[in-house]
Amino acid sequence: MTSNRHKEAVRKIYERLYQAIGPLRWWPADSPFEVIIGAILTQNTSWTNVEKAIRVLKEKNLLHPRRLYAIPEEALAQAIRSSGFFNLKAKRIKSFLGFLFQQYQGSLDRMFSEDTETLRGKMLTINGMGPETVDSILLYAGGKPVFVVDAYTRRILSRHGLISEKAGYEEIQQLFMDSLEKDAGLFNEYHALLVHTGKHHCKKRYNCPRCPLEGLGRRRRVAMAR
DNA sequence: CACCAGGCAAGTA
DNA sequence: TACTTGCATGGT
What we know:
- The chain has helices spanning 4-21, 32-41, 47-59, 65-70, 73-79, 86-104, 108-113, 116-123, 131-141, 151-159, 169-179, 184-200.
- It is an all-alpha fold.
- The structure holds a DNA duplex.
């Protein structure tokens, strides 16, 4: 159960961030398939390194399900080298493609036509697809109203005393979904704002000056993730 | 030089 | 169940 006080805080944080930072227009990609590849490539990896890998895939005209499905895993690994963990990620992309082609004949439209909860459960069984990656894909590639929780989300909420430092993924997700309208556009913007804030304002262990969230309720020291 | 970045799975006790 | 470790590049 989420307290009304916590629900209020969650809504207030959104208002503050939106006023200060404005609409971010996520996910930064040209197609749903690009979102999916980006979601896998960005696992524990800086976005700038992911952008380089995406650029290479585009130059080689590989950013389509059939093209990627056709090339050898080793070739894919070399193409995405700059994103780090490239052998692992090539394997994960291949795992997803195997799923996409076996279950939906390679069609993202067919995949996203499936009931969201059912699809989420199936995707979580794919090797390399954990909750954050799956939810990012559902929200940003599929437009489904699913809230995405990541390390920045954890840190910011924890710092504001809204969750314990070892709260589980689903628990944090529930806090947002209990507090907000079930609106994909809102979830899209909110997660983007949290990432932006985490990157640019909340890198320090203590309160960060000039943070849009400064002065919002009690804040506490919190260790960096890990 | 050390530390970090829009995680996840597999191994260990 | 609860930690720990491997995966790897590139920027600060």
